[in-house]
From TrEMBL:
One of its GO terms (molecular function) is acyltransferase activity, transferring groups other than amino-acyl groups. CDD domains: NAT_SF. It comes from Sanguibacter inulinus. It comes from the Bacteria. Keywords: Transferase. Residues 49-211 form the N-acetyltransferase domain. InterPro entries: Acyl_CoA_acyltransferase (IPR016181), GNAT_dom (IPR000182). Signal peptide: none annotated. This is GNAT family N-acetyltransferase. The keyword Transferase applies.
């Protein structure tokens, strides 16, 4: 099997069999262009995997959104790899793609790190496709000088605490069934489970909107007059963007990271603006509520909601952070409740709000549980150091 790397198509990488060809996808000019078939096939495979795992396609990244995100190489190099049968001649079609891997490598901050996922069409499982894709990803990462790899695998549900065959991260938080798909695969490649992220969903309409209103009122009272909420849409105000960039930098290290080999990612104002532009290009509306400390004038916390503009029935609770020096004033609840109240007007057709939190982040999970988020599954973060 030959595996090609995008900038050097003649170079072959180590492969386990001659059944599959893995290649790096060239980003098409548009989704209608002649060369878009492999890219569209990669997106189709991801849709099939997400639907098989969770029972819905909400977590699938549509081609138009993925293309815009992958084109933004300002701070992260992103590659899509596809697996096809080795006997296919010429450019593969959309239907020829049986597996896909999506690889991300930061260009600032975590320049030692490569993160990726592996997606195999359900009817092609256990045929060597995942191994071929992972071999190719690891070869590219090595070529780029990446010494730590993180593989994420989603698992629906979570075994009970008294289950016999479970895999638990060193943090002791989060459980995965020992026979779940992906466990033997990751272990066999030398990866170690470092962290479990709880995947939770808040379903709409809420049984009682008054619960959110009450939590908002209580958190505003607990915060007192020293704190005020500030909300913006899509673009952070110029007078706040520097403070927001500093909070985003803090987000990279102030949340639980377990044993993951992560270092601080310094977010600049320029990166904030580029991220905002990429969101617009990909058709993603973003609402951000921040908390300002009135005596100092500083932003001390924020929470973001991502809202695909073409899919009004779903949204994603993204980063939420309160600066350590200002914790203990119920600001986390204030931020999340304020956003939920705003969503009533912004997205009256909303059906599901998705979020992820480190399983050991008990404080944030307690807020989510109080607001009605239901545990849905665990995303396992498997790490391998190759230096």
């Amino acid at each position: 099997m030959s595996t090609t790397q995008g900038t050097n198509p003649d170079r072959t990488l180590p492969t386990p069999s001659d059944r599959w060809t893995v290649s790096v996808v060239a980003l098409p000019e548009s989704l209608e262009s002649q060369g878009a078939e492999p890219f569209l096939g990669a997106c189709d495979v991801q849709h099939a995997v997400e639907t098989a795992t969770w029972g819905h396609g909400d977590l699938y990244l549509p081609p138009e959104m993925r293309l815009a995100i992958m084109r933004d190489a300002s701070t992260t190099e992103r590659l899509a790899l596809v697996a096809t049968r080795a006997d296919i001649e010429g450019e593969p079609t959309r239907e020829d793609v049986v597996g896909a891997a999506f690889l991300a490598m930061e260009l600032t901050g975590n320049t030692h790190l490569a993160t990726f996922d592996v997606n195999v069409r359900p009817d092609a499982l256990r045929s060597g496709v995942g191994t071929a894709l992972a071999d190719a990803v690891e070869a590219i990462a090595a070529e780029r000088g990446r010494t730590t790899l993180v593989l994420d695998v989603g698992h629906a549900g979570e075994p009970p605490a008294d289950a016999e065959d479970v895999v638990t991260p060193p943090t002791g938080a989060g459980r995965i069934a020992g026979d779940a798909p992906g466990v033997a695969f990751a272990r066999g490649r030398g990866y170690v489970l470092e962290q479990g992220e709880r995947y939770s969903v808040l379903h709409f309409p809420l049984a009682d909107d008054g619960v959110v209103d009450r939590f908002l009122a209580e958190s505003l009272a607990a915060a007192g007059p020293d704190y005020e909420a500030v909300t913006w849409y899509d673009r952070c105000p110029d007078e706040l963007v520097g403070q927001y960039a500093a909070l985003s930098t803090l987000m990279s290290t102030a949340v639980p990271v377990a044993g993951l080999d992560l270092v601080e990612h310094v977010v600049t104002v320029e990166e904030v603006r580029q991220t905002e532009q990429t969101a617009r290009d990909s058709g993603n509306d973003v609402m951000t509520t921040a908390v300002r400390h009135r005596p100092s004038g500083e932003l001390v916390g924020y929470s973001e909601i991502q809202m695909p503009s073409s899919y009004g029935f779903l949204a994603f609770q993204d980063d939420t952070l309160v600066a350590p020096a200002h914790r203990g004033h119920r600001l986390g609840m204030l931020l999340k409740a304020q956003n939920l109240v705003a969503l009533r007007t912004l997205r009256p057709e909303l059906e599901r709000l998705h979020t992820w939190n480190a399983e050991e982040n008990r404080h944030m999970l307690s807020i989510n549980e109080a607001l009605g988020f239901a545990p849905t599954g665990v995303v396992a973060l498997w790490q391998k150091r190759v230096a």
